[in-house]
Amino acid sequence: MTKNILISGASIAGPALAYWLREHGYTVTVVERSPQPRPGGYKIDVRGRAMEVLTRMGIADEVRQHHTDMRGGSFLDRKGRSVVEMDADTVGFREPTDVEILRGDLARILLAATEGVEYVYGDSITSLTEDAAGVTVTFERSLPRRFDLVVGADGLHSTVRALAFGPEERFLRSLGHYVAIFSVPNMLDLDRWEAIQAEKGRTLNVYSTKQDSQAKAAFLFASPELSYDRRDTARQQQMLAEVFAPHGWIAPQLLAAMPASPDFYFDGMSVVEMERWSTGRVALVGDAAYGPSPASGQGTSLALVGAYVLACELAAADGDHEAAFAAYEERMRHFVTVNQKQASNIKRMVAGSRFTLWLNRTMMRLMPYLPGTAKIMEKVRAEIRDVSNAVELPETRPEIRSELRAEAVRNAS
């Protein structure tokens, strides 16, 4: 029976998968390129079935305690004046059961839930050599090791996907937009509030959560494909400054604070599209397999549900990894497809023309006075609710989980 599994990636999908594999009696190792767990990060949503997964893990209440506690947001005109204000759940189209949380807080909670799992930080996989009995894995720093299976949970630019499936260009569909997010001083004195200001082809969002004495600045912009080294932060910051230099409002001050920020993030907005999420003894989960882009708002939920389903199918297949991978893909495919379609939200987030920008601003001004506004908002919320629940979770009886976990502890000792 398959017992020894390596996971690449320790953000969201990796620790979630490690938790459920351990619950089913597997020995799990997680390798992570970062030298340590990454704190902070931008705010993310956990919705629908993903919250059910957290409930089954027993950590849903803790996750709720660390929600961002955002009060709402303002949509601003080009001079920074408020056009309309909305409460936080309306801005995010959230249900009462959904949770908005900082990525780093969720990652920390998941990590704590996997106490006893082996984590190897500051290292990365360099090769995978598969045979009939397992996979030999080499690393940048550690000695080679053997595993029964390898799972890539290492994000949009997955190393495991590149090694097992080929160059990422084959699988990433660009949305023609880029995103940058980084911490800045709270120069607007925001109190659990976000301020959103848009121009043609670019949008700027500044927010501060209850956990953060600073603020986060999120920049979105449309662009043809850019050529740059993902490790060259200085070049990325230069490109961002060039795009937003004419933006006005508070953009100059934010860009001036950018070089000193400790958590600058920049990347293209892409959807990961693959015909299969497994090959041989290697599988993918989360953004590595089916990243829906930040524009969808559904990446975290897909990662949590995918990790749970993959672990359950491996346990149900009793060692037949090919059958498990096939069942995982069959159960997840529709859920992935409908959630990836939410990436079209980028058209609402960044105005593609001056007319669209004018129309958006006009509609924002009129929203408080239009009788059908509530119905329009509910329609959008209902669509997100539907796609967030568009999968049936396999059942794992608590008593079986307890027995398997006890067995894993006995084997480890």
TrEMBL record:
Residues 5-335 form the FAD-binding domain. It holds the Pfam family FAD_binding_3. The lineage of its organism: Bacteria, Bacillati, Actinomycetota, Actinomycetes, Pseudonocardiales. Signal peptide: none annotated. This is 2-polyprenyl-6-methoxyphenol hydroxylase-like FAD-dependent oxidoreductase. GO terms for molecular function: FAD binding. InterPro entries: FAD-bd (IPR002938), FAD/NAD-bd_sf (IPR036188), FAD_aromatic-hydroxylase (IPR051704). It comes from Kutzneria kofuensis.
